[in-house]
Every structure is written in C-alpha cells, then in structure tokens.
Amino acid sequence: MDLANLPKMTFIAVFAGFFSVLATARSKTSFALTLLRLSQGWVMKTIIWFVMITMNAIMGTAMLFMWIKCRPFAKVWDDTLDGWCIEPAKIVILYQWSVGWSGCSDVVLALLPWNILFHMRKTLDVKERLGIAIAMSMGLVAGVASFVKLAMLPRLTGDPTDTVTVTT
Predict the structure, then answer these.
(1) Which domain holds residue 125?
(2) What are the residue boundaries of the Rhodopsin domain, all occurrences included (predicted)?
(3) N or C, which end of the chain has less CB nearby within 10 Å?
(4) What is the per-residue pLDDT for 159?
C-alpha cells in the first residue's frame, strides 16, 4: 500500500460512513412515518414522534462530528496536517450513544407494529396479522446487531484512546 494514498482512503471511509449513518437514519424515519400513519391514539403517536426526533438528533450529531472533530477539517482524513482533534475517547462515547440509541429505536419501532396489528383483528385474519407483524419486526435483528456493536466499539483497539501510527 502506498502511504501517499492513505488520506484519500481515509476520506472515502469517512464519506462512506457518513452516508451509511444517513441512510440508516432515513430508513428508520421512513418506517416510523409509516407506523405514524397506521397508528391510532396520542400515546402511540407521541412515542413514534419521540423516537423519530431523538434518533435523528443523536445520529445527526454523530454524522456532524465525523467531519468537524478536527481543525482544520482536513485533519479528519489527513493526520499529517498541523491542528487538533477532539479526544478519541470523547468521540467514541458520542458514537456509543448514537449506536445505543439506534438499537433502542430499532427495538421500539419493531415492537410497535404488534400493537397496531392487534387492533386490526376485525380486518385481517390471524395468519395475515402474524405474517405482517413478523415482517415488520425484523428491526429486532438490527437492534441486536446495534447492541453487539455497542459492546464491541470500545474494544476495537483495546483502549478507545489508542491511536495508530503508520511508519515506513
């Protein structure tokens, strides 16, 4: 690997990570809006709005800090530049909050269809309701994956404040 390409590769990784989190947030928002249209009652709608707003705020903050954690901004992908960055341990804590809340919102959004479908017992038979509920509850798998990621995030380097020095 040519070390001259390291800043370009890091930029692409940060860029891809940003859009990955953006896509995740938008897909959760889309599903929540679908649930909002299907739900009845102010309690259910309040829960959905709370999950949507807080999830977008927390994940949006994490996306923002992917780019603004260093001054100059280019130091995010080019460590050879002079400047400063927020301590890695603090960034890990922010990302842990983002991953943790993402997992919680996955679980909540996966369980809400069961309540909605329970009230549709006059329009759908049991098999249809069960099939729809299982399909709409696949977010539980994403929630479990988020919790595993949450547990593993600080262990990636053993110490969340470790940095890697590349030498030739």
Answers:
(1) 3-155
(2) 16-161
(3) C
(4) 54
Structural domain contains residue 81: yes
Does 135 fall in a domain? yes
Q: Read off the pLDDT of residues 60-81 as tens digits, 9 standing for 90 and up.
A: 999 999 999 999 999 999 989 9
Taking the model in full, what pTM does it have? 0.80
Confirm whether 103 is domain-assigned.
Answer: yes
| Cα 58 from Cα 88, distance rounded (Å) | 18
DSSP SS3 for 122: coil
Dihedral (CA of 99, 102, 108, 114) sign: negative
Do 40 and 47 form a contact (C-beta atoms < 8 A)?
A: no
167, part of any domain: no
User: In this structure, what DSSP letter does residue 133 have?
Assistant: H
Question: Rounded distance, CA 47 to CA 52, Å?
Answer: 9
Number of neighbours of residue 86 by Cβ within 10 angstroms: 13
Task: Return d(Cα 106, Cα 36) in angstroms, integer.
Answer: 15
